[in-house]
Amino acid sequence: MYPNDKDTKYNLEYARKKLLQQKQEQQQNQDNKDNKDNQDKQQQQQNQDNKEEQNKDNEKQQKQKQEQEQQQQQRQQDKRQLDALQQNERQTQKKVAEEEMKKGGKAKQEKDW
Question: DSSP of 40-75, one letter per residue?
Fold first, then answer.
């Protein structure tokens, strides 16, 4: 080991440069890995947010569908009630007409000759 030997100095400097280069590559690889991890986390968060939004949309659609079904059922029930009331009115009018005919048949008719 000769500190003043050119080959030794060259080899030492070469080893230092290689070590420095290796450290830089490791740091760059770590940075790349960290960036990829961050991108993966962001993608996962975005996917989760999209799923949550889709679930909310699905719930909203289901709620609207239920409301529409309830409205349709209410309309059907209202129609049945209206039909029943109309039928009741027809029956009542028929009874009134029958009563009037009965009363009319008992009354004496005047002759105008």
Answer: HHHHHHHHHHHHHHHHHHHHHHHHHHHHHHHHHHHH
Separation between Cα atoms, residue 18 and residue 12, nearest integer Å: 10
Residue 20 in contact with residue 14, Cβ under 8 Å? Answer: no
**Domain ranges (residues) in the chain:** 1-71
In tens, the pLDDT along 46-80 reads 999 999 999 999 999 999 999 999 999 999 999 99
Q: What is the 3-state secondary structure (H, E, C) of 77-89?
A: HHHHHHHHHHHHH
State whether the Cα torsion 85-87-92-96 is positive or negative.
positive
pTM given for the model: 0.46
